[in-house]
Amino acid sequence: MINKQIYLKSGKEQSLKRFHPWVFSGAIARKKGTLFEGDTVEVFTSEGSYLATGHWSPGSIAVRIFSFTQCIPDRDFFRTKLKNALLYRQSTTLFSDTSTNVWRMVHGEGDGLPGLIVDIYDNVAVMQAHTAGFWHLREMLAGLILEVMGERIVAVYDKSEATLPFMAGLGAENGYLAGEYHGNDAVVVENGLKFRINWQTGQKTGFFIDQRDNRELLSHYTTGRSVLNMFGYTGGFSVYAMRNAAAVHTVDSSPIATSLADENVKMNFSDDPRHKSITADAFSYLNEMKPEYDLIILDPPAFAKHQNVLANALQGYRRINAMALKKIKPGGILFTFSCSQVVSRDDFRKTIFVAAANSGRRVRIMHQMSQPPDHPVNIYHPESEYLKGLVLHVE
């Protein structure tokens, strides 16, 4: 029996009845019990009918739901959740692909575990808690990951230090929670290409796994082309482009990132003179460069992480896409992305439409892109479709 409860205002239960996994603070009428961040709470209608169970937070999103049926959220409950996440991935083509050993095992709301991310890098699982609720359960979850994954995994690393709510004051420190592994990096394989991943220092859990299918798509359009990979980070798109491009330039503002991009290219293509890394600000580089590229990739970091900066984010996307569209060679191809959750698919497409109109070029949409199946979108939670992309042909 969970003795901490939330009662909603009349009429505010409709989103939960449609299985949306968030309860906003403004929907709450009253609370029963003293609530601390990360506590498990049950949510009821104003009349006292049970709705869902989740983790409490004092922010705008007050409860993140992990069950719509009354439950005891113990070891058995979360073991079943993790098993279901693994079974889902075994139903995709990912597990029949022996050329890839880096993938996502748990994707927050997409797997009914909002606030929890688990990525697999060969034989190491990297876990990130984005809520205090799952951080408090981290040791139990690490043990369950080893149990559920069996011989596939030898260790679980917790990388929650930078993703937990700052005001929670949890004092989290990154480190191994279960199993044994020496070091904080590994060379993994994605679609037959090698990448060095450092889950201690890398962004996210160490690599942008969500772009796997989009990187593979890119490689089919690079033959004989001069490729510019903006915001190139550690060169994921660049390595794929190197399969058959005439030249590939990786641009990032971080010298650490461009150094890793060089290393990843070298692991796959030795000292190939077709690749060059450039440490520079993206906007400045696009503004000053000559129109020498006939394929450009724009994969910037999230310009907006909160709704109150959405307008500025859309302006940023519009500006950088307009610059690329003006500078790309006739007959060129633009791969452009947004990974901002608060930017909807329609927002992004309208922004690119304005950028295209401002460029004065004739532009066609060749592909519309999203995240791969191991980053599933919960149909009741459209916000989980955070990655949007377009492939554009520019005359």
List the helices and strands and how they pair.
Layout: E1 5-8, H1 14-17, E2 22-24, E3 28-32, E4 40-44, E5 50-56, E6 61-67, H2 75-90, E7 102-107, E8 116-121, E9 124-129, H3 132-136, H4 138-149, E10 155-158, E11 175-179, E12 185-190, E13 193-198, H5 212-219, E14 226-230, H6 236-241, E15 247-252, H7 255-269, E16 275-279, H8 282-288, E17 295-298, H9 310-327, E18 332-338, H10 345-359, E19 363-369, E20 388-394
Parallel strand pairs: 1-4, 9-10, 14-15, 14-17, 15-16, 17-18
Antiparallel strand pairs: 1-3, 2-6, 4-5, 5-6, 7-8, 8-9, 10-11, 12-13, 18-20, 19-20
List keywords for this structure.
395 residues; alpha/beta; Archaeosine Trna-guanine Transglycosylase, Chain: A, domain 4; Transcription Regulator spoIIAA; Rossmann fold; 3 domains; seven-stranded mixed beta sheet; six-stranded mixed beta sheet; 10 helices; 28% strand
CATH superfamily name of the largest domain? Vaccinia Virus protein VP39
Give me the count of strands: 20
How many domains would you count in the coordinates? Answer: 3
Helix content: 25-40%
Oligomer: single chain
Structural class: alpha/beta
> What percentage of amino acids are in beta strands?
25-35%
**N/C terminus separation:** 64 Å
CATH class of the largest domain: Alpha Beta
Strands in their spatial order, largest beta sheet: 16-15-14-17-18-20-19
Identify low-pLDDT runs.
none
As a whole number of angstroms, the C-alpha radius of gyration is 22 Å
Tell me the series of helices and strands, N- to C-terminal: EHEEEEEHEEEHHEEEEHEHEHEHEHEHEE
